[in-house]
Each structure stands twice: as structure tokens, then as C-alpha cells.
UniProtKB/TrEMBL annotation:
The keyword Metal-binding applies. A divalent metal cation binds at residue 14. The lineage of its organism: Bacteria, Bacillati, Bacillota, Bacilli, Bacillales. PROSITE patterns: MALIC_ENZYMES, PROKAR_LIPOPROTEIN. Divalent metal cations. Prefers magnesium or manganese. Transmembrane segments: none annotated. This is Malic enzyme NAD-binding domain-containing protein. Belongs to the malic enzymes family.
Length: 237
């Protein structure tokens, strides 16, 4: 993308398509929770290209919501296989660096993860996120303890286990609804059946990038679009 984005119309579905559908889900969660996007705290579990692609889309929207660009990164805590990304993380990639937290900022975080890293549970305890997004392909990573910890600080926790196929989803909607006593706003990357809880039927929205690229590709061809790095943001509408 960096090589060709200014030369030809190019689209990366894993980065941009996933980011677009995730932003749509996040905007819906912000509306349902009645909390403006600029006031949300976002943890992304799985800070690879898909996870950072999601962060980029959401961050752009936060800036459009009135937050200064240099401050917009402060809304994110991104976690990869080495734990929470910090400015002294080993092997941190260039595309991850803008989202790394300052090491002095997290010096009091417990380091209970592998190789003395800061794990997801500790980040949830410290950051008190309002939105939790999973792109890790680690099935069941959003445990009952993690979800209940998040829900103890947030009235309507938005939880998006985006990994697919289904066995790789970070959590099952049934569990998320039950663990939060029906308060969670749930969107998944894989298809799930509706959940019955407390006499209420919860329809589980699927934010799959397959919902984006056919229309975007056709629209690009029909409109004879010129290269534009942010053209896919239209999907947030």
C-alpha cells in the first residue's frame, strides 16, 4: 500500500476493509451507548495489520469528532503477542509505533504476561476501556474475568471479537451477553445465531469485510476513481 497508493487505485481488504466495517460497528456502539466517539477508550487485542488498520480508521473518525491529531492516539491501547505496545517494546514495527504507549506511563502496570509483558487483563484493569476489539485469532481470549472487569467500569461495554472463522473468535456472543447481564454491545467478525437472555432476543451484528469490498470495488470502477488513501472511509455512513 505504501508503495502503490499514490500511483494506482489499490485496496487492502484486510487493513482497509476490516477497518471500515469495524468503524461502522464502533459508530453504532457510540450511538447506542450515548457516549461520543471522542470520549471512548479503545483496547485492540491483536496489533497486526488488521488491528492497526482498524485503529487508523477509528482514529481518523476521532479527529473528525474534534480531537487534535496528536492527541487522538491517546485513545488507544494496542496489544500484540509481546503484550501492550510501548515505546520500548522489542521488535515493534514502524506501523505500530504511533500507537505505542510511553513506557513511563505504564511503569506501574503489573507485568504478568509472557516474558514480563503487560497482558490484556492488566490493560483492561488500568485503561478501563469502553470498547474492546479482538483481531488476534486467539479463540476464547476474552475470558469471563476480562469481560467482567471491563463491565465493572462501563455501563454499556462494546465488545467486538472480530477474528474469524468462528473457532478463532475471541469470545462467543452468548457468553458476552451473560457475563455482562445483557449490557454488552456485541459485534462479531464471524456469523453467530441470535442470543436469548432475560426474555430478550439479541441479534448479533456481523462486521465482516465481505460487506465492503464488492460495493467499493464496483463504485471505484464505475466512478473511475483516482488514487485516494481515504476513499474507503465512506463506508462509515
Amino acid at each position: 500500500m505504501e508503495k502503490y497508493k499514490d500511483r494506482i487505485c489499490t485496496f487492502n481488504d484486510d487493513i482497509q476493509g476490516t477497518g471500515a466495517v469495524s468503524l461502522a460497528a464502533v459508530l453504532a456502539c457510540a450511538k447506542a451507548s450515548k457516549v461520543p466517539l471522542k470520549d471512548h477508550r479503545i483496547v485492540i487485542f491483536g496489533a497486526g495489520t488488521a488491528g492497526i488498520g482498524i485503529a487508523e480508521q477509528i482514529r481518523d473518525a476521532i479527529v473528525r469528532d474534534g480531537v487534535k491529531e496528536e492527541e487522538s492516539y491517546d485513545h488507544f491501547w494496542c496489544i500484540d503477542k509481546t503484550g501492550l505496545l510501548t515505546d520500548d517494546s522489542p521488535d515493534i514495527q514502524p506501523f505500530q509505533k504511533p500507537y505505542a504507549r510511553r513506557s513511563d506511563e505504564v511503569k506501574d502496570y503489573a507485568r504478568n504476561g509472557p516474558k514480563h509483558s503487560i497482558d490484556l487483563l492488566e490493560v483492561v484493569k488500568q485503561a478501563k476501556p469502553t470498547i474492546l476489539i479482538g483481531t488476534s485469532t486467539v479463540g476464547g481470549a476474552f475470558t469471563e474475568e476480562i469481560v467482567k472487569e471491563m463491565a465493572s467500569h462501563v455501563e454499556r461495554p462494546a465488545i467486538l471479537p472480530m477474528s474469524n472463522p468462528t473457532p478463532l473468535s475471541e469470545a462467543k456472543p452468548q457468553d458476552l451477553i451473560e457475563w455482562t447481564e445483557g449490557r454488552a454491545l456485541v459485534t462479531t467478525g464471524s456469523p453467530f445465531a441470535p442470543v436469548e437472555y432475560g426474555g430478550v432476543t439479541y441479534e448479533i451484528g456481523q462486521a465482516n469485510n465481505a460487506l465492503v469490498f464488492p460495493g467499493l470495488g464496483l463504485g471505484t470502477i464505475v466512478s473511475k476513481s483516482t488514487p485516494h488513501d481515504r476513499q474507503y472511509v465512506c463506508c462509515e455512513c
